[in-house]
Amino acid sequence: MKSLMTDVVVVPDRDIAPSVMFDVPPQGGARIGEHEHRELSRLQAEVKKRLTLPIAASILPHRIGRSNSVSVHLCDSLENTLDILVTVTGNISWPDDQDYQHGIRWYISVPDTVDAMWLVSRLANLTGCTD
């Protein structure tokens, strides 16, 4: 499946509502504030530290209690794996230093499904899984 999601434009934090990770105006492409972009860039860099390209991705939706989640299972050709759980919680949280160093699964909270979709698409772009 070919992704139709466009590149994300980085804008000053003041141009993004603090309650969202990605701002997606009607008929427009996604935008991300500078702070969340730094967090996203770190996430991508940490994935590359753990896994070597090419990376395969399995992406599955889940319900955990009353929360909607997307599990992302990443695996490289050496069979190193990494699991990321993206959960719609109404707020934003990223893995911390301890999670990145020692966690077998990284947990990310996002405000809504739009943010979950855009975040997963950025992970898919990282792995090359866009076709």
In short:
This protein is of the alpha/beta class and 131 residues long. It has helices at residues 34-50, 97-102, 113-127; strands spanning 9-11, 22-23, 31-33, 55-64, 67-76, 81-88, 105-110.
Count of extended strands: 7
Average residue pLDDT? 90
**Tally of individual domains:** 1
How many strands, what sense, and barrel or not for the largest sheet? Answer: 4 strands, mixed
Strand content: 25-35%
* Radius of gyration over all CA atoms, rounded: 14 Å
Structural class call reads: alpha/beta
Shape: globular
Helix content: 25-40%
State the helix count.
Answer: 3
**Topology as a string of helices (H) and strands (E):** EEEHEEEHEH
Major β-sheet strand ordering: 4-5-6-7
Distance between the termini: 5 Å
Provide the low-confidence segments as ranges: none
Label this structure with key terms.
131 residues; alpha/beta; three-stranded mixed sheet; 7 strands
What does this structure look like?
- The chain has one domain.
- The protein has three helices and seven strands, in the order βββαβββαβα.
- A hairpin with a 2-residue loop joins strand 4 and strand 5.
- With 131 residues, the chain is an alpha/beta fold.
- It has a four-stranded mixed sheet, with helices on one face. Strands 1-3-2 form a three-stranded mixed sheet.
- It has helices at residues 34-50, 97-102, 113-127; strands at 9-11, 22-23, 31-33, 55-64, 67-76, 81-88, 105-110.
